[in-house]
Amino acid sequence: MKAPLAVLAMIAAALVVMVVGVVRAQQSAPAAPAVQANRAPHPASEQPLPFSHKTHVSRGLECQTCHTNPAPGNQMAFPDTSTCMNCHATIATDRPAIRKLAEYVSSNQTVPWVRVYKVLPGVTWTHRKHLQAGVQCQTCHGSVADLPAMAQTSAVTAMASCVSCHEARRASTACITCHAWPAK
Question: In the chain, fewer beta carbons within 10 Å around the N or the C end?
Answer without folding.
Answer: N
